[in-house]
Amino acid sequence: MSSVTTWLVVPAAGQGRRMGADRPKQYLPLAGETMLARTLERLHLALPDARLALCLDEDDARFTPEQVPFARWQRVTGGAERMDSVLNALRSLPADDDDIVLVHDVARPCVMPADVGALAAAAHDSVDGALLAMPVADTMKRATSGGDCAGTEPRDGLWHALTPQGFRCGVLRRALEDARAHGTLVTDEASAVESLGGRPRLVSGRRDNLKVTHPDDLALAAAVLASQELPEHHAAAGTANG
Ligand code: C5P
Prior knowledge:
The protein is α/β, with parallel strands linked by helices. 28% of the residues lie in helices and 23% in strands. The structure holds cytidine-5'-monophosphate (C5P).
């Protein structure tokens, strides 16, 4: 994996309105830091030499570079939708088509370094890329418009899509540019690659890689962070280089 550059794209330009908080959720406190700092810390533990593109809202006044532990990173202006933020990053990175790009939501601060490493390895090995995912465990119901059960969906073969998701840079650029050109709104990178006929590999990830979306998720994330055992962390503050 050493002959190609690994890039990390972290979309963090959302407003997180479902949290109902006084600020975007990436700036809510989590175990004494911002959620943004916690998420970047986890990614840095796994891939300390990766190059980071951090997508932020252009009016974001809460960001400070101290929250970034990477030595090489750049700020990218976010777009109207998550996919636009990621696409802006891909358009601005000086990345080769063969380089690996891993996209990870800022709202998943509990991702474990071992999962990031496994995903990066799979992204390197699979032509259509890979995503962290977990098999659906609950019985799945389809609802009527009135909120009653319309039926039970077979859960065999169903997975929850998590992040990171990783691809060759050229594959992901083509897929997201195509989705944007066709006006297709995708909520993860794998869907864009699937639309072009690709079959990204499902990499079974930990169940505690939760996405902080609703107010009570924050306490859950704090409890998960407190329960996880990490390898030793040699944190080093980075500086912006672009
Ligand atoms: O709102 P939601 O949690 O689904 O957003 C997923 C991720 O995409 C978050 O990390 C959020 O900051 C990011 N995002 C973005 N640009 C947008 C909308 C969301 O970077 N326009």
